[in-house]
Prior knowledge:
The protein is of the alpha/beta class. The chain has 13 helices and ten strands. It has one domain: TIM Barrel (Alpha-Beta Barrel). The strands form two sheets. The protein has an eight-stranded parallel β-barrel, surrounded by five helices. Strand 2, helix 5 and strand 3 form a beta-alpha-beta unit. Helix 6 runs parallel beside helix 8 and helix 8 packs across helix 9.
Amino acid sequence: xxxxxxxxxxxxxxxxxxxxxxxxxxxxxxxxxxxxxxxxxxxxxxxxxxxxxxxxxxxxxxxxxxxxxxxxxxxxxxxxxxxxxxxxxxxxxxxxxxxxxxxxxxxxxxxxxxxxxxxxxxxxxxxxxxxxxxxxxxxxxxxxxxxxxxxxxxxxxxxxxxxxxxxxxxxxxxxxxxxxxxxxxxxxxxxxxxxxxxxxxxxxxxxxxxxxxxxxxxxxxxxxxxxxxxxxxxxxxxxxxxxxxxxxxxxxxxxxxxxxxxxxxxxxxxxxxxxxxxxxxxxxxxxxxxxxxxxxxxxxxxx
Length: 303
């Protein structure tokens, strides 16, 4: 008996087009159907801000080039910094390179009440602007302060995150809270506090898996615990603790992560976020690293 899955019209169309004119590998990545738990795969622009200055360029002036490299590698979306919402050419460049704005990122003070209110007011204004560009995810990382925050400061922070999440909800934008290493101190005290003391309907998790690992957390245990709160994800790996040139095999078993993500509560964007440090090897161009990373996402997550 033939148990082959039926071919959908979308897949059939992609195969016919491929046979007729030769579909590029990057286009093929976008054409195939993806698991419904994923909205697509995007690329964070942070690593370009590291590399471009070495060429005498700045990210703000090079979005056309950067978006072109991201599209050519097969990505469907791009994630970038909140400041670029003010770029008058952003909408045109997204359309030119057939990219969706999967999210924008910002820091901010949340642990102090008065400063937190100013942070919330400023970031809430980004909601309608983000929606105008087709995006609906704002990622924030509460600013570290060089020491552990007190319980009172964390209570204030959680309240401010709720307030921002509520304001963004009015614009149909979802707030996702991000982490770096400082929030992972003492078994992820701040990381867990942000989620355990905020409203699940208002505050979601941007799961930056490598930062969880680098900060000393167990990414598999924490992802399993909070999988119902995951609203987006950053993908990066390291080898023996050193950030990899591309997203691939390393310290974190992303096949195990993909298995955990089968329990996601709503579809999310997967965002490759490469970052280079002093000991990171460099064997290829950044454009090639971005393309290699995209293929690994497809291999591991099926999208």
